[in-house]
Amino acid sequence: HDQADNILVAFSADICRVCRSEGTPEKPLYHPCVCTGSIKFIHQECLVQWLKHSRKEYCELCKHRFAFTPSNSSWCRYVIYFF
């Protein structure tokens, strides 16, 4: 029974849809759009990189538009508001 529970936990862990890694306290996962399921979550850094590469301001899957504001943070150019 314990082994089955461990398998369930392994498959139910939330992961980033870009890098496929789990969230951590230093790099939490966000859900910035209305996508659900295995594509719901993303790290902020992964999203910023994807947006720079794609040159889009919305999710290509659900078409939700992201809102940005400049940030003084050295590790990230934008703070992303998640609605």
TrEMBL record:
Its EC number is 2.3.2.27. It comes from the Eukaryota. Keywords: Acetylation, Endoplasmic reticulum, Membrane, Metal-binding, Transferase, Transmembrane, Transmembrane helix, Ubl conjugation, Ubl conjugation pathway, Zinc, Zinc-finger. It catalyses: S-ubiquitinyl-[E2 ubiquitin-conjugating enzyme]-L-cysteine + [acceptor protein]-L-lysine = [E2 ubiquitin-conjugating enzyme]-L-cysteine + N(6)-ubiquitinyl-[acceptor protein]-L-lysine. One of its GO terms (cellular component) is endoplasmic reticulum membrane. It is a multi-pass membrane protein. It is found in: Endoplasmic reticulum membrane. Residues 8-69 form the RING-CH-type domain. Coiled coil: none annotated. GO terms for biological process: ERAD pathway. Pathway: Protein modification; protein ubiquitination. It holds the Pfam family RINGv. PROSITE patterns: ZF_RING_CH. GO terms for molecular function: ubiquitin protein ligase activity; zinc ion binding. Its main location: endoplasmic reticulum. Interacts with DIO2. Interacts with SQLE. This is E3 ubiquitin-protein ligase MARCHF6. It comes from Accipiter nisus.
